[in-house]
Amino acid sequence: MITKTKGIVLKTIKYGDASAITKIFTEEFGLIGFHIPSLFKNKGRIKPSHLQALNCIEISFNLSNAKNLYAIKDLTCHYHFSSAQFSQQAYYNVIVELTAQCIKENEHNSSLFNYLYNQLIPSLNAHTGFWQLPTAMLQILYHYGCAPNTEGYENNYVLDLQNGIFSASLLQAYYTASPAVSHIIYNILDHGSDQLSQDHALRHQTIEALIDYFRLHINNGFDLKSREVLWQVMKG
């Protein structure tokens, strides 16, 4: 049965001399693997540029439960990252790494898909803002259904990273964010990121706390190694 769905390219790797295997997060079926024969010979309708990470595409393929890898019948690319700005390229690389570690095989999550496809990915060609990365991380947690619960928050509360709640005591959990970082996380979740102070050290501490949160709730091997480049270009 031929089916059509929107998708987000997560990763494409070379397979053999000229073919490729690509992982695509689809709107209707979750993360699926596809085999693209002769991709790097540029002889078919599908080109390597169509399968750049985070391309927003629409594909047709033959849906069969008997196959581990599917064949794409047709592909239309609706969005691709194209900014020449180094800061935006650095941010793009972090988001590529972030999404690749969050989306699990065959997991269907229409809320997360719609956020990535319609909001986060189209914003990658725009100006890179100071709090853009921690805001994106918290939005992904929200659409994943495991963002911190902001109910009952008060000033000087700390975020219990393991249980996803704000608490008055530092002693209630082993994994906690500082009061200043907890306040930032609460403000992003409750009010957005427009009014946050431009404090680079605090932004880095917030990202580190969120990396710990992702390890506890989504992927215990989670990391953002490419963030080091982003920190360098966003200094000053």
Quick structural summary:
The protein is α+β, with helices and mostly antiparallel strands.
Folded structure, characterized:
The chain is α+β, with helices and mostly antiparallel strands. It folds into two domains: 2-79, OB fold (Dihydrolipoamide Acetyltransferase, E2P) (Beta Barrel), CATH 2.40.50.140; 86-233, Recombination protein O, C-terminal domain (de novo design (two linked rop proteins), Up-down Bundle), CATH 1.20.1440.120. It has six helices and eight strands. Strands 5-3-2-1-4-6 form a six-stranded mixed sheet, covered by helices on one side. The chain has a two-stranded antiparallel sheet with strand order 7-8. The longest helix is centred in the C-terminal third of the chain and has 18 residues, at 200-217. It is elongated and about 60 Å long. The relative contact order is 0.12. The mean pLDDT is 90.
Key features?
236 residues; alpha+beta; OB fold (Dihydrolipoamide Acetyltransferase, E2P); de novo design (two linked rop proteins); six-stranded mixed beta sheet; two-stranded antiparallel sheet; 8 strands; elongated
CATH topology of the largest domain: de novo design (two linked rop proteins)
CATH hierarchy class name of the largest domain: Mainly Alpha
Indicate how many domains the architecture comprises: 2
Low-confidence stretches: none
Strand order in the largest sheet: 5-3-2-1-4-6
Structural class: alpha+beta
Mean pLDDT: 90
- Output the helix-strand order: EEEEEEHHHEEHHH
Rg of Cα set = 19 Å
Relative strand content: 15-25%
Major sheet size, sense and barrel closure: 6 strands, mixed
* Total helical segments: 6
Task: Please estimate the helix content.
Answer: 25-40%
| End-to-end distance | 55 Å
> What is the number of beta strands?
8
- Choose one word for the global shape: elongated
